[in-house]
Every structure is written in C-alpha cells, then in structure tokens.
Amino acid sequence: MDPDDLAIGIIAGLLEARTGQRLTEDRRWRIAPALSGLFRERGISSHQDLVVLLTQPDESSLAQDVVEALLNNETYFFRDRGVFDYISDTLLPRLASARAKTKKLSIWSVGCSTGQETLSLAMMFAEQGKRWDGWEIEILGTDVSSSVLEFAREATYSNFQIQRGLSVAQMLANFTETSEGWKAHYKLRDQVRYEVHNVLHPAPYPGRFDLILCRNVLLYFDNAVRDRAFSRLSEALSEGGRLVLGGGETVLGRSGWFVPDEERQAVYVHGPAAGSASKCASAA
C-alpha cells in the first residue's frame, strides 16, 4: 500500500474512533483540504509526518485538533425551514399539552455545531411570546468539538452567517451588530446551555428530554454504531418525546423504541408503546 494512503487510512480511523463517523474511500478526499490549515499552523509537511507526530505521548491535543478539523460543521439558522415550522406549529403545542402540569420543557440539539440550531429554537420560543409565559424552557446544545461550542457560546456571527436563514426583521430583533459581527441578544444566549458530548456515550440526562434534534449527525455511522446512537437517544428521551432526524436519516429497521410520526417524515415518537409496536411488526 502507498505510504500516503496508509497514513490517510490511519487518520480516518482516528476520526471514527473518536466520533463514530466513517470516512469511506470515496470521501477521504476531504482529509487533505480539511487538514491544510492545521498543517500550516503546526509546520507539518505530509500525512505521514502527521501520523508520526500522533504517536508521540505528548500530542493528545494534536489528535483532538485533527478530529475537529475533519468534522463537518455545516449549519445555518432555521435549517430546513419546514422542520422548524412543524416543530413550532405541531410538536410544541402537543408537548405543551402533555407537560401542562409541570410547565417544563427540555430540548436537546445533538451536534449543534456553532449554535445556529439552538438559537433558532430560542428565537422560536421568543416569537411565540405569551404561549410560554410561566414555563421553564431548557435548550441544551452538545457537540464533540469544544472549539465550535466556544463559538456557539460567544454567539457572534459574520454577515454571511447571519444572513443564512434569517430575515432582516429577525436579525434586528435578536442580534446586535458589533465590531466583531452580529451578536445574539443576552436573552437568547441565556436560554441555551452547551456541553461537550458524544452521542455514542451515555445520555447526559436520562429520560429528561421532550424533544431531541439529531439532524445529519448519523449519516456517516455504520449500522452498528447507528444502533448505539439510537440506544443513547432512547435513554435521553422522556416517554412520548419526539426525535427529529435529518431528511436522509431513519430509525426504521434499526430501533425498537421509536415509531414514525404519521404527519412528518424523519420525526419519531418515543416510548414503551413504540417498542411494543415495533416488536409486533417484527413478529408479523
């Protein structure tokens, strides 16, 4: 095997070991451009040199930098607007009715990247105003990358980023233009909390969440890893909670704890009833 191909395979293996994401042969072209900035910063000249450095006992930070450089952090405000419309118009009223006694609602954004998804949720609650008076709303954003979470906590976006998915009215109502960019108002930032977390690890707060958005996170997992992720998501959801996946993702055939929402693709209902329904379908 060509030494460079071998080195690239080792780098791809590092990403899979740390995150579960598999870089298949046809996607390994991403490695060179993704690591180019890191190579310049560290004075690394080749993939082989990088692999040698990764074997050194004092280079754990380099391994994390490599993983973070390889992650796809593509996101924007109200990404796939139809999903947010469905959450706003259908899911939240149902969850509000189910949680009317406690007036508590917990939402988890998995793979939240630089924070646009979590802030979109916060804006959605702000826009609904009086409906949520007296409610305790928790929005948790998690990601395996500590650097993107630092960006998310800062919540300051460039002109390009702020215009992706937001109207001018939403920009002016929720952000202030500063010398560094457009910064989210404190009220929005205060509603969102961020933690480093890998969806393959035990759920951060078992049984706590009424709604989980895990969109386009599982695309590059193999079936066994995807099953582990669904198990963790099931641990985190409350009974009757909803799981929202990306448009190209599904739990069908992979999990016994979710059944499809009859009204919307890529939305699933969680609970023992879902598990029983799945087992009956499998027996049939």
UniProtKB/TrEMBL annotation:
CDD domains: AdoMet_MTases (cd02440). Residues 1-253 form the CheR-type methyltransferase domain. GO terms for biological process: methylation. This is Methyltransferase. The keyword Transferase applies. The keyword tRNA-binding does not apply. One of its GO terms (molecular function) is S-adenosylmethionine-dependent methyltransferase activity. Pfam families: CheR (PF01739). PROSITE patterns: CHER (PS50123). Keywords: Methyltransferase, S-adenosyl-L-methionine, Transferase.
